[in-house]
Amino acid sequence: MIPWLLRRVLSALLLVCLLMTAVFFIVRLAPGDPLDQVVGNELTDADRDLMRRKFQLDEPLSRQFLSWAGGVLTGDLGESLGRQQPVAAIIGEVLPPTLLLTVSAYVLQLLLAVAAVGVMVRWRGRAPEHWVQGVGLVFYSLPAFWLGLMAIMLMSRWLGWFPAAGLHATDYPFMSGPDRALDLLRHMFLPVTTLALGTFMGTARYLRAGVEEALGQDYILAARSRGLGRGRILGHALRNALLPIITLVGLHLPFLLGGAVVTEVVFGWPGMGRVTVEAIWARDYPLIMGTTLVAALTVVAGSLLADLLYRWADPRVRPERGMSGS
Amino acid sequence: MMRRAGFLISVGLILVSALGPLVLSQDPTALGPVELGLQAPTWSHPCGTDVHGRDVLLRLVHGGRVSLLVGWLSVVVAVTLGATVGLAAGLGPRWLDRPLMYLTDAFLAFPRIFLVLLLVSLISPSLWLVMVVLGLTGWMGVARLVRAETLSLRERDFVHAARGLGLTARQVAVRHVLPNLLPTILVAAALRIGGTILTESFLSFLGLGAQAPTISWGAMIQEGRDHLLDGWWLTVFPGLAIALTVVGYNLLADDLRRRMDPRADEEAGS
Amino acid sequence: MTAPLLTARGLEIIFKGRDVPVVSGLDLDIRPGETLAVVGPSGCGKSLTARALCGLLPASARWGGEILWQGTPLTDPDDARWSALRGPGLTLILQEPLAALNPVLTVGAQVEETLRVRAGLSRRAARARARELFAEVHLPHPDRVGQAYPHQLSGGMRQRVLLAAALACDPRLLIADEPTASLDLTVQREILALLDRIRRERNLALLFVTHDLSLVPLLAERALVMGEGTPPRLVAATDLAVDNPAPPGRSTAPEGTPVLSVRGLQVRYGPDESGPPAVAGVDLDLWPGEIVGLAGESGCGKTSLARAMVGQLSHVSGEVRVRDRNLLKLGGADLRRTRRSIQLACQDAGASLNPRRRVGAHLLEAGCPDPAACLARVGLTADMADRYPHQLSGGQRQRVALARNLSAAPDVLVADEITSALDKPLQQQVLDLLTAARRDDGLAILLISHDLDLLQRVCGRILVMDRGAVVEVYPTDGSSPPRHPCTLRLAAALPPRVGTLQASEFFAVPEADEIDGETGSGCPWTSGCTSRKSVCFKVLPPLQNVAPGHWVRCPESDAPVPAHFIDT
């Protein structure tokens, strides 16, 4: 078990290094002067020279890369060109909101998927199944950013139930504990729901395929022949079908991060996605590198976690010391 | 009926986008008279008008071309690239497989939208750039799929039997492996068109896609963002257009998938 | 006459979307403690009938007619009645025990679940009762076996677990659908013995579905005979007819040079070729026009040997000489040419045909100049050339694959279990085909099968394999009978011909211990051997020539060791 784990971690780290090198060189090879984007025309030439020296922009690219890489190992991700703040600090600020958004959305979409599959299997061939499928298909096909806008239009502008953007209300620091929690939930509701609604059908599809396959297995037939009821049978099938879904967490992570980008931009959510987009706009290299690195690490860690979970959950893969004979 | 729906919608939309602009001769970018600005849907303007008095429906018809063009072309690029890599990994010399898959996994680990935004923002945005970038970032999934399918096909008894008849590796690949690979590739392509159209619309929404005066649905939504309530038709209709297109292609892909999967014969007893 | 437990009248089963029912006009009744066999060839609807009687038909089928339990009719939408009945009333056990157990739960958990849910027992009581049931079905270590997962148990053990689960609710009727068909012959016998004992002890009624007629009189008094196109009819078990085709002629003693020569063939699986070898050094010679049998239980290495011989596997060492060229060392055009001279016919013929190519294309590719003629040779009509594989029946696919093999004009044909999935008439057709090829083209055939009976009828000599090594080679003309414990086990496990051996004699052999001991350096077959000595535990014996044409891997014989012997 341990040697396998070690190999996986090492290969994951190698992957991250590869990615970082690739992104660094892609970004730097782009035409245009980064400083133009940063402050516009207000810089004097002297100021420019100062900034150039500070950010080492005149050094050969390989030198810049090495010094950046060295910095990463010590935890220093450099300083943002535009915001004049350490990159690590910026990321530290925006990572938690993104995690909050993505994790909540993932859990919600998983629940929605299970519910959808439950309905589709229970009423197979009849009206409720077709309805769920239709609704799911529509949600899957809607542009996520548009769905967000519609949500804002309806729920926020028209009905006024939820705030249109942001993480907190302006008077957040002055609120009491429970009020704070409520405020957070109110702000979370639209973005999380939008993100979940847009993605649950994909999961539901896989889950349903898994459940249908499980239901067709002989052990289900055997269980039914012993008189076990519908609910229990569905429980068995779900249990077996959820196993591959867990591995999908690893694959889903890139999509969720991507979806978070869209949601954050539309809802003005102060998370990594929005900051990345802004950084890309502004050619803020250190910040771009920083967020890309964190994104890559998150994805790689997620897939590693999924592998671990799967090995734990499926007894056939676990090295067991049980009864011999085969 | 549901099965045909996907096919009908997809083909219908292609026809409308291709022929519509030829049939309707008005210029969708010409500014209309001021008094027509921001009008709710009426019989003469079924989808309303925008701030500049332009007819929204007309702009929708023109905007479809962008979505469809990008959708199809970038998927063709992505699938061709992906299938080539997958085949090389699956059928080629053993030492090629590992590094190719490593590379593929490396790119796959990245959220596509990050990569796309990064690449698109580096050079001045244009429609063709979007197509190329989407193609270059979408091949990984296909490569994995094709490789997995190829590897499994390789071990199938009928491939073994073909080799046992003394056929060369090339003959085996062309006559036996490829034809059985085609359905997988086609279905993978169909499934990707919908997603690509969605990504393109987001890029246009951000202003990184086709530039004015070329009309695209995503850009139309961005224009309508400031009038969410008082000009709701500006955002609603383009969004519905996108949704309809993607639904059509998703249904088509589903239908294709069902047809291509060999239907196991009903067990006739015992 | 006691009232019947289960009655069916005019039962009809039809698949949705088809016009012709699979089963129609079926009447049966089963009384308490009685055993009824349901027999028929594959495809006649036996399994469907079994499922219909439990109310568990697949969604794609419908049934009509009447089914009554103790006089009360059971109807389709009345699922509640069926559910209540399943478990304490009737229950079902299936053919493939691994598939019938949930792979992610321990076997104990699955049995206890039934006890808790249906019999309302507490967790503790359920566990205790589960242990009792495991002991009743003669599982070794009944107190610990519950913690194992299905994939950790052998096929026979899994079937016992299923039996235990089925008995959990004390049913009155047990419906068994081919419960032993996928088990080894030896294990089959043990499971049948177990079933027999249990039904007597519990006065359990048994509905036994099988395609193997010879098993019927061992357990049942009556049999329901089903057939394609004929209405089902009830007969007494002793009236069942089994046809014994006359044995074909055997080949004469070999002369000249062998057309196939295998030396020291070894196959190892695993990423670093670690682990025990699947084929542990096999030597074999085949002469033109011969048909030689290769027998052994599943897992003994027969298929690995077959695939290694035609060059399909990597990690193979040794020599396979066809026409005096070593197949394993060739490359390029030489290899391609030589491959055609040794052909492999697999059990699953459908898998060896490209689903996207027509039959005619397959034959042309193999080198047959006239597909119609090649098809005629295997007894198929010329119009089949335009069909795709999935449009043919199993038997037709088997024949097309054979036609393709023969079109390559090979010197050697390795036939791996090509008859196992066919019923008797088709089997005979295929064998006749092979005989004709031997006679007309001098084709040498290695016929692989686990059915020793078939091999003894058809082959000139038989090789027996176990654990990757050849343990015995003996002639079938009766001049020197087999003696190795593995061979004897294979021979003894054959169900007796209908009307010959008594059921009591068949069941009398004690059940083998199924948990294997570790393999040390000695002979691994000592546990079942009647003539073992102390030296057997220390040394792995080589193959020794004990009579003309007869070698045994056993030190018992005093005959001199032959010029080459196999080391493992």
Q: What is shown here, in short?
A:
The complex is a heterotrimer of chains A (326), B (270) and C (568). By secondary structure, chain A is mostly helical. Chain A has helices at 2-28, 34-39, 45-54, 61-73, 87-122, 127-141, 144-158, 177-215, 218-225, 230-267, 272-281, 285-313.
Descriptive key words:
heterotrimer, B: 270 residues, mainly alpha, 10 helices, 0% strand, elongated, disordered C terminus, C: 568 residues, alpha/beta, 8-stranded mixed β-sheet, 6-stranded mixed β-sheet, 23% strand, globular
The structure class of chain C reads: alpha/beta
Shape of chain C: globular
Structural class of the secondary structure composition of chain A?
A: mainly alpha
Q: Note poorly predicted spans of chain C.
A: 243-252, 496-520, 557-568
Query: How many beta-strand elements of chain A?
Result: 0
Terminal Cα separation of chain C, in Å? 64 Å
Count of separate DSSP helical elements of chain C: 16
Strand content of chain A: under 5%
Strand order of the largest sheet of chain C: 16-17-18-13-19-20-22-21
What is the helical fraction of chain A, as a range of percent?
A: over 70%
Task: State the low-pLDDT regions of chain A, or none.
Answer: 319-326
DSSP, total strands of chain C? 22
H/E element string of chain A? HHHHHHHHHHHH
What's the overall average pLDDT of chain C, rounded?
79
Distance between the termini of chain A: 22 Å
Largest sheet of chain C: 8 strands, mixed
Multimeric state: heterotrimer
Sheet bearing the most strands of chain A, described?
A: none
Give the helix proportion of chain C (percent range).
Answer: 25-40%
User: What sort of overall outline of chain A do the alpha carbons produce when their principal axes are compared?
Assistant: globular
Radius of gyration of chain C: 26 Å
